[in-house]
Design goal:
Elements (H helix, E strand, L loop, with lengths): L2 H15 L4 H13 L1 H24 L1 H7 L1 H25 L14 H13 L2 H10 L11 H35 L2 H4 L2 H19 L6
Helix pairs in contact: 1-8, 2-3, 2-6, 2-8, 2-10, 3-6, 3-7, 3-8, 4-7, 5-6, 5-10
Amino acid sequence: MPLSTLLAFVAAASALVLLPGPNMVLIVTRAAAQGRRAGLATAAGVESATVVHIAVAVSGGAELVSRSPAAYLALTHAGAAYLLFLGVRALRAGPFLTAAGEAAPARWGRAYLDGALANLLNPKVTLFFLAFLPQFVRPDSADPHALMWLLGMVFLALGALLDIGYACAGGALSRWLRRRPRVLARQHWVVGGVYLTLGALGAAAALPVGP
């Protein structure tokens, strides 16, 4: 791969990963609610699912999803339903931080799973890689699949660095919350409301348009 092509990909990928989305919201809210480590665990889950999306795109599975409206809608509804589940769970769990400013016990495995499933059940991510990666791979390349994997890993590294930044920002917000008891009593409503909103938007996006 020419160096100019790789640099063009890095520039384009950097611009894309800087766009805020559901993954960013999920990581920041988890870190704000349960601390930086929980945010990092969520970020690890998100990026693990990104590897799966890349594999599906390289293998051609994403093209099958794009050609099957039923499969696309099923994945979209599943992703929306999971976000709604996270919202309800947050509301029922109560405050993540105690009035004394101590974080409630966090389960890193659950944070990782939440991040992985939320990203994995988003078919738009797989279709994004299907449309984005091939633009930088010439059809006459000796091994197009290997080049797509290389570009996918570059994208993954950029996304991981940004997600770590989101987790650290959420951790700083968590420390700010611990100094404000009145806000602590309501922060689970904010977290739950964010998840429910994301789930509702995802469900609305899957609704058919027109007759």
